Amino acid sequence: MSQLMKLYDLQSRYERGVLEMSKRYLEQTEADYRSVYKKWEEGELFPGETIVRKKPWWRMFARSETIELPGKQLSRPAFLKWYAKRLEMHKLLYAAGGAREDEVWRLSYRRQLDFYLMLHQLNDHYGLFYRPVAQYQQGEVELGSFVVGPTAIHLIAWLDGEESIYHVSPAKKWMEQPFKGETRQVLSPLIDLKRTEDMLKHLLAGESDLPVERIIVASKGYFDHVPKDATSTYVNKIDFQAWIKRMNDLAPHTKAQQARICDRLLERMASVTFAQAIERQEETFETAEE
């Protein structure tokens, strides 16, 4: 699972220093996994429970009722799936602007396919910036999602059509042909990728030697009319798992230069607390209702 360094414009713990916080995150994660795994092995992860129902005060001769609820032991696949969700929450708390675990649900993030796949499929040696908001001139600009790896900065656009065929075109609009349903136009992802690349070059201003790779992923679909001289990488349903493996093979460890680039980017990103973000979100809803 990639390390979530920035989520929208929310305040991130990694702003304190990527190397230090990455080390702390990995240490906490390893210790947590050892502890939880031991409890699972011993059948104590979800122990049984004893509930005592006290007798009503008006029933003088009644006895208290004791209910024994049995524990639950997960299979190994079920345990790993459960722990993946636990780890996802742990990552979110590092980048959610100080939100508590019972508050994170108020953020709109996990319904997005791209967020889930980047967080869960890429390994811990990638730093994930999910739709970060950069400070630019007198305002702010939302960028596309990208990951900073040890060998490159990968800008990734995700197309989530189920069994759709995307007809690649130099025009601003592409044609999406779903397996079921009518053909429709979608905005070319190349536009957002190019805009994000230009902004990153401006933000880093020559401070990075890492190449920038533009990637378009249709993890459940296919591409048609891909130009032979394409400067972007196209990943379809057939190639998806092999591409994930290639990406993870490219990141066997984290490099110091990679951490420095993440530090520079975080310095140039907008940063608000969870409370400020929620307050702003509620004001937007109220304005829309009026």
Please, could you describe this protein's structure?
The protein has 290 residues and is an alpha/beta fold. It is 37% helix and 21% strand. The protein is built from 7 helices and 14 strands. It has helices at 18-41, 76-95, 113-121, 189-204, 240-249, 256-267, 274-289, and strands spanning 3-7, 49-53, 65-69, 127-130, 133-136, 139-142, 146-148, 153-158, 165-167, 173-177, 184-187, 212-217, 222-224, 233-235. The strands form 4 sheets. Strands 1-4-7-8-12-14 form a 6-stranded mixed sheet, sandwiched between helices. Strands 11-10-9-13 form a 4-stranded mixed sheet, with no helix packed on it. Strands 2-3 form a two-stranded antiparallel sheet. A hairpin with a 5-residue loop joins β9 (165-167) and β10.
Question: How would you summarize what this structure contains?
Answer:
This protein has helices at 18-41, 76-95, 113-121, 189-204, 240-249, 256-267, 274-289; strands spanning 3-7, 49-53, 65-69, 127-130, 133-136, 139-142, 146-148, 153-158, 165-167, 173-177, 184-187, 212-217, 222-224, 233-235. With 290 residues, it is α/β, with parallel strands linked by helices.
Helix content: 25-40%
What's the end-to-end separation, in Å? 42 Å
Number of strands: 14
Give the radius of gyration: 23 Å
Give the topology, please.
Layout: E1 3-7, H1 18-41, E2 49-53, E3 65-69, H2 76-95, H3 113-121, E4 127-130, E5 133-136, E6 139-142, E7 146-148, E8 153-158, E9 165-167, E10 173-177, E11 184-187, H4 189-204, E12 212-217, E13 222-224, E14 233-235, H5 240-249, H6 256-267, H7 274-289
Parallel strand pairs: 1-4, 8-12, 9-13, 12-14
Antiparallel strand pairs: 2-3, 4-7, 5-6, 7-8, 9-10, 10-11
